[in-house]
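User:
Can I borrow your eye for a moment on a structure tokenisation matter? Would you put together a sequence-and-structure record for a protein of your own picking? Please set it down just below, with no commentary around it:
AI:
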Amino acid sequence: MTLSDRAGSVLVAAELAREAFAARDSTLAPRWLFLSDQQANQWPAETMAEIAHQLPPIECLSVGEPWTINRWVERFECDDGFVVPGGEVELRAVVRSAGATARETVPVTLTIDDQVVASELVDLEPNSQRIVHFRYRLPASLFAPWSKVLVASAALPADRLRADDRRTLAVPIVSQLGVLLVDAAGPGAAPGSGGAGETRQLRKLLSAGLPDNFPAEAGPRSLALDQLDDETLLAARLVVLAGIPSPRPELLGPLRAFVERGGQLLIAAGAAFDPAAWNDLAWQGGAGILPAPLDPHPIGATPAEAVELRPFFLSPASMTHELFWPAGVAPDELEDLYRGPYFFKAVHALCDDEWPAQPDRWTQSDRADGTDQADPARPEVWARFDNQAPFIVARRLGLGQTVLITTGVHSSWNNLPRTHAVLLLDRLMRSMLGRTLPAVQFTQREELSIPIADRHLEYSAVRPGGRTEPLAIEALGPQQFGLTLRGLDARGFYRVSGRRAEQPRGDRPTGSLRDLGGMVVAPTEDGASGEQPDRAPPVWEFVFSLAGDARESDLTPLAPERLESLLAERSDGTGTTPLTPGAARAQLGWQLWRGLLAGVLLLLLAEMAILARPHAAAVPAILHPSDGLGRHDRGT
């Protein structure tokens, strides 16, 4: 028997019961029995009361022995979302303990590519949580023209519930960052007015985590605005435009296409940024590259422009996006960090009700080719200043997104680059860069579809535990083909690979990164998949990790009185009194006794029949004394 790793849902079960009750034969009197281990976190009080009111009387029976002591790895994360060859990566494991028993010096081990590379000892208090940080430096030998995947796991010593003692993580390995930093002056310029060197601070932030021997051409590249063209955009993942007075009209179309096919565009004000010119050229009623329209008049003034300085500050309460709140850092510390910088000037992005009423402005866009295209994405304000003006605004465009920072990143518009809060810009860029990489980390799901480019390969998948299965190519959409893995019911790593049917053993695959519907899939090196040596090496490979629902690890049961209160206001429409869990158990006990009594009677009857058989067999022997064997006549 194979166990299926699935999170149970009381809401789904209740909805199915309600549908079955509505479709029942009215001449029958069905009885409803709900079997569950009664995990408390699977009973949402805010919705169960409403659903339970529409259910018939249900007999709730707890199954399994009471078991509340458990230790598990609740999360295993990499903040950056990617790693580089030769670089150091920080991995964070969150370990939880439930129950009244404390455990001392519990080892938490880090495994990379099936090799234990680090271990930390932690003390787990009852019902507590510990965060364990690991640092690991990747070997520099991973340099290659295609991406790979780092496979890692964090594990605890095995206990009774072994499925959650280990949690896996897949992280893309990137050999080419594909980041273009564009300002008015380009590389080699000193910071100053007019946008010169406006992106220098951003380059320092992105380069900080790169190894010393990382190729310069593979790291972030600084360009002047007149150096940006269609060819440079082809190899880019993230493009930053900072402190540019006005965009070049001939670049707006290529930049929009870059975003729609999955690229990330970050626009920052500052220096000589002209909001009126940007709004006229780059908004275009929603068909441009701005995430929101801009007021032509900026907010505030720089020290050189102002008669009286009136600085404003960030509003930590408005910073609801997860990238601003890294795990492992106290929220109070982050709030103090974000309140540090002061701002003198910003452009005003018009979001929500600030834009004149145009009901269709977010759903219909006047394209440059004269056609209308639906664009349901509205701008999202990720952070605001204390005057409620937007600080960071984002909007999805096709498969990518465009993000606007309404102030400067290295100019007299603020002192942000001279404070520790500048790290939020680093997290923002790394988060955007991570969105261009293949999704290789998933939680529980029924199936996963993977687009492919080559329909002439033979595809197979290796599931956790080593079971291999062939995969058939399916149509995923118009002119799009791919593979679909179904029955994803095991935690761990899945490896999907494609091979040529008749491939010489010495062949080395060639190719470049392929953008398949926003998922970058890459060829692999010979033998990179660890497959059997008698098979040809794969020319295409996709590795991903499937993690279970951490809520399933908290085995704390729902108190019986709490369950009774959730189901107390239930009615089947006939005025009968609903059964409480206690009554259900009592009635089920009587049913069990009736079954046991019937079973005992059947056993007694069977025993009487068995005892009677020797006596019945002896009678024919007396009737036929001529049969020397003493056998009766069987009619043969």
